[in-house]
Write a structure and sequence with these properties.
- By secondary structure, the chain is of the alpha+beta class.
- The protein has two domains: 77 residues, Roll (Ubiquitin-like (UB roll)), CATH 3.10.20.30; 74 residues, DNA polymerase, domain 1 (Orthogonal Bundle).
- The protein is 38% helix and 15% strand.
- Strand 3 and strand 4 form a beta hairpin.
- The longest helix is centred in the C-terminal third of the chain and has 20 residues.
């Protein structure tokens, strides 16, 4: 099977990869680009552990072929914050104990970041709706929702003072 050449921006860096046509974006990220923060949970798009941003929108990377990402900008959990400086959503998950085992956390954070980018003051119901496609088997979601609300408030405050 002939490989396809994929050129895209990943976490702000231009990357080029040759992949088989059936290669999933999640597989390319993890295996070819060694960005293992994007997790593979179910392979059926049910759990959301593989959520990344493609051109600024949250997508489940197990539902996207790597070839479909050609020419796009992809942000993974590794590209959300900076070394030594967590993104406000990452910090809020830490501060509000919005994680336990951590397996779902990258996908939850990426889904939450997409929500807050589109809606800087989401209600509890809007947060729960936005993360409904991300399954956590540990926390019961209460602290995850609290973390997203906290991060949104921090980000609104930062935006207001900028």
């Amino acid at each position: 099977m002939a490989e396809l050449h994929v050129a895209l921006e990943v976490n702000g860096e231009h990357r080029e990869v040759d992949v088989e046509p059936r290669t999933l974006l999640v597989t390319m990220l993890r295996e070819d680009l060694e960005l293992t923060g994007t997790h593979v949970g179910c392979d059926t798009s049910q759990c959301g552990a593989c959520t990344v941003h493609v051109d600024g929108r949250a997508v489940k990377s197990c539902t996207v072929l790597a070839a479909q990402a050609d020419g796009t900008s992809v942000t993974t959990i590794e590209g959300l914050g900076q070394v030594g400086s967590l993104h406000p959503i990452q910090q809020a998950f830490w501060d509000k104990h919005g994680l336990q085992c951590g397996f779902c956390t990258p996908g939850m954070i990426m889904a939450a970041a997409d929500l807050v980018a589109r809606n800087p003051d989401p209600s509890e119901a809007e947060i729960r709706h936005a993360i409904a496609g991300n399954i956590c088997r540990c926390t019961g979601y209460h602290n995850i929702v609290a973390a997203v609300r906290e991060a949104a408030a921090v980000m609104r405050g930062a935006a207001a003072s900028a």
